Amino acid sequence: MRVLIAGLGDNKDFGLKSLRDAGHFVGVIDLPHRIPVNLCDWWRAGDRFSVDSMLEEASSADFTWDAVLCWEELSTDIAREVARKLGVPGTRMPAGHFRDKGLMHGRLRQEGLPTPQLGVARTLQECEDLAGGRFPLVVKPTDYGGSGGVQVVTGPDGLADAFRSAATLSASGRVAVDRYVRGKEYSVEAVTWAPGDTEVLAVTEKHLTRPPYCVELGHVVPAVLPDADREALAAATRAALDALGMEAGVCHAEFRLTEEGPVLMEVAGRPAGGQIPRLVELATGWNINLAELAAVVGQRIRPSDPAAECSAIRCFVGDGTTPFAHPVTLANASRPPLLGTLRELRYSAGEGTVHRVPRGPEDRLGYALFAGTREEVSAALAALDQGTEVYRGD
C-alpha cells in the first residue's frame, strides 16, 4: 500500500521502518528538518498545522494514496481531514475528543466514567474558582501534546504561574484543572478494529520524575500487575474508547490505578511516543504501527513471536546542578547486566554540561533501551539507577 504519514512524532524512525519492512510505500509530509528522508520513499515539506498545505502536497504525487496516518499529536485532527478530502482511509474518531482534554473529559462525565477533571478555565479567576482551595491539583493545556505544560500545584501560591504556563502552550488558551489522583501510573496501548471492537496490546509501567512536572523517564513492558488490575485497566480503556467514539485506530491511554480502580488521565488517538511501540513489539510481538494501518483499511492482523520476555527504556535528565555524566560507558556496556540486554543507546547532550531539572520531554538528554528476561532487564535498570528511587506515582 501507499501510506502517507501526514505529520511525524518522536516515534518516526521505528514507525517508518516498520511500514517499509512490511512492504509498504511510505510518504511523509512535515517540516523538512523533521523528515528522515532515508526512511521514506516520498516526501514533501509542508505545514503540519494546515489542512490546505498538507492537502496541496499530498495531491502533488502522481499516484493515489491508499491510507493517511498521523503520529504527531498536534496534527491528528488535521490529518484526518486531509484523508477525508483525498477520499482515502484514515483513522476514524470524532474530531476533538482525543485532542481537547476539555471535550474528552466532558464526554467521559456524560457517560458516567470516572474523570479527575474539575473543569476548564480561560482566566486565572476561573482557574481559582475551579480549584476552590483544593490542593494538590493538576493544571495543563487542554490542547497541547504529550506532557508539555502539565504541572502539579501544591498550594495557592503556585497556581498563577502554572495557569500562565499552561495557557501559553494551549492553542485555544483554555486550561484544564484536575484533582490530583494518587496511585501508580500505567499506560494501555490498544487497537480498535471497528466500533466496539478494541483489543488491548500491552499495559506499560511508567517511571516519572517527582511533582511538580512528572516527566516520563522510563517505561517497562509488560507491567507487573495482578490479573484483576490488568483486566480493570483493559476494561476501563475499552469503556473510554467507546464513550469517546473511537471507530478505527490505535490509542495510548494513561491511567492512575487507585484503590477505587483505574482513573483515566488522558488518551491519545495515535501510537505512543517515548519508544513505547518498539518496547511493545520486543516484549509482545505486536507492532502498533502495522496494527493501526490494518485497522484503518479494514483489515486485522496478529502479533509475531516476541523477541524477549520484557523490554524497558530509561531516559536521562539533568538535576540543575550536577554536570551530566553519560550513564552507559565503554566499560559498563561491555559487561553484565548491560551486556546482552542493551539494544540501543542515544545521547543528545555532552558530558560535563549542566541541564535544568526536567519540565517536559524536551529536557531528556538521551536514553538506553533494554530487552531480555524480566530479571535481566530489572538488573540493567538498577545498574543505571544506582539506588535512586524510581517514582511511579503516590
Explain what you see.
- Helices cover 28% and strands 26% of the residues.
- The chain has 394 residues and is of the alpha+beta class.
- The protein has an eight-stranded antiparallel beta sheet with strand order 13-12-9-10-11-14-16-15, sandwiched between helices.
- A hairpin with a 7-residue loop joins β10 and β11.
- α2 crosses α3.
- The mean pLDDT is 96.
Question: Key terms for this structure?
Answer:
11 helices, 8-stranded antiparallel sheet, alpha+beta, 4-stranded parallel sheet, 26% strand, 394 residues, globular
Write the layout of secondary structure elements.
Blueprint: E1 2-6, H1 12-21, E2 25-30, E3 42-45, H2 51-59, E4 67-69, H3 76-86, H4 101-110, E5 117-121, H5 124-131, E6 137-141, E7 151-153, H6 159-169, E8 175-179, E9 184-194, E10 197-208, E11 216-221, H7 227-244, E12 249-258, E13 261-268, H8 276-284, H9 288-296, E14 310-315, H10 330-333, E15 342-347, E16 366-372, H11 374-385
Parallel strand pairs: 1-2, 1-4, 2-3
Antiparallel strand pairs: 5-8, 6-7, 6-8, 9-10, 9-12, 10-11, 11-14, 12-13, 14-16, 15-16
Helix pairs in contact: 2-3
The helix fraction, in percent, is 25-40%
Terminal-residue CA separation:
46 Å
Structural class: alpha+beta
Strand % is 25-35%
Number of strands: 16
Average pLDDT works out at: 96
Whole-number radius of gyration? 21 Å
Main beta-sheet annotation: 8 strands, antiparallel
Q: Identify the strand order in the major beta sheet.
A: 13-12-9-10-11-14-16-15
N to C succession of SSEs: EHEEHEHHEHEEHEEEEHEEHHEHEEH
Poorly predicted segments:
none
Shape: globular
* Number of helices, where a helix is a run of at least 4 consecutive DSSP H or I residues: 11
